[in-house]
Amino acid sequence: MSAGERLGIAASRVEARTLAAFGMLGVGVTRFEACEGLSGGGVLLLLPFLVESGLMSYRNHYEGRSGYYDFDSFVILYAFLVLLRIKSMEQAKRVNPGELGKLIGYDRIPETKKLRGLIREMTDQQQCSPWGASLSEAWVREDEPELYYIDGHVQVYHGYLANLGKKHVSRQRLCLPGMMEFWVNSVSGEPFFFITASVNEKMIAMLEEKIIPALLQLHKPSEEQAAAMAENKNCPLFTLVFDREAYSPAFFKRLWDTYRIAILTYRKNVKQPWEKTAFKETSVSTAMGSSTMLLHEEQVAIAECPLREVRKLSDDGHQTSIITTNRIWDLSQIAAHMFRRWIQENFFRYMRQEYAMDKIIQYAVEEVDSAVSVVNREYHNITYAIKKEREKISRRKAKLYELEQANPLDTDAAQKEKTAYLNTQLKHREVLEQLQENVDALVEQRKKTPYKITIGQLPEDIRYNKLNQESKHLQNIIKMICFRAETAFANLLTPHFNRAEEEIRSLVKAIINQTIDLLPDYQNNKLYVTLYPLANPRSNDAIRKVIDNINQTYTLYPGTSLTLCFKIATIQSVPGQEF
User: Counting CB atoms within 10 angstroms of each CB, which of 28, 91, 186, 440 has the fewest?
Assistant: First the structure.
């Protein structure tokens, strides 16, 4: 067995690895070699977009490391693994370590144990929060959004180390243990930031305590917006769009009166339908193009909060009610922004399926602040017992009603039958009295039981804790960057396809997994990347035009002086030969 084989498959830099093993190598030097037929090399085309989205800005927050692999190579590798749909560290064992290593300028990628060690070294620095905040600030400043979509996502937990509260998982229609994350996205579906709930906080609490203060820090109104707000008292600072989970007219009024923040959501408890003749056909711009909807608007006041209510009449007669405190948007804008909420649901679905959003990369548990308030489990148990006792009372009353309706006392029935009827009725009334006494006792017990208690007051065996948040936040940040980079790349391809909505994401995945040739030119500081042709001429023509735009960015491969130069290989046809 050669020295390289003892160091791992495809390990060829024996001297550098040996020096690193004895602590005699400062930082591993990224150096590319000429290679042909590197599978999955198309991921390099997204590197300029990753850099533009802020991948390498981690350097402003993390201290570097010495050793064969530096943090630059690890962060780039992790992003490449995400884009290549390698969804866990264990799956990295099944890829060719040498080919993937060549893409980051090394002989091979680290083994799984080393990858976990690099993650641990980064998370030990506890810098995810400042890094994520700086990225959010840059993204908000670049997009200048007028609205934010907010929704919760449950990271379902199936392990046994953590004792997590149960949340309702709508996609599975079950209540399961997990961690709740609240995501803030743009109108195009791209993420700005996320907030992790400690235990079981509701959306309204998270909005008031964390999300809105964060948005107020990030959303600095431009001079034009500030002037418009000063001139027009109906002009909002920005608008929040969410579902019924945060429905509270008092909360909506408080947001407008305090911050001039508008809301857009669905109305709860809609009972009175509007006259169908009031609805008018309105053209609404959607992601799929212009659409005609039957809409009508009325001014309403709910709990002293003045609102605009817009309803959409469906073909089956159903009326979907939307309410907002935004007084600037017209009818079509309100409908368009509300019905565009599906884009955030699609974001969650895409992140779960393609990027393994809920994957745990560090199996560790942290304690929750003992001062955090949670719903008292004993209070919940008593409420559940009251509910069950009242259900029994309802069933007994129904049975008693049947007995009273079938009254044999006014008929010529035998005395024996009348006596049995009276005894049966008496037993039902006795049981009803006993059940009512049980309910009264439980109600009195619940009055003496606090609805909320602190984590520290819970018994130790059922006390809540939480999963390691630093590693999950690091994973989320890199995957957010990857999603934004992939979206930016897809947007360049979109003008070249008529059915871009259905085709682009699949095409991007095909490009990422395409084979390349790699040729470094250290004399001219160039790194030439030749992409093998795609499946059809239309895709090849589109990617050729996009490559021309990418080359004009003159992106340096991080940690080197090499400028990335992309091109797509041309299939040469032989004269007189048909393919």
Answer: 440
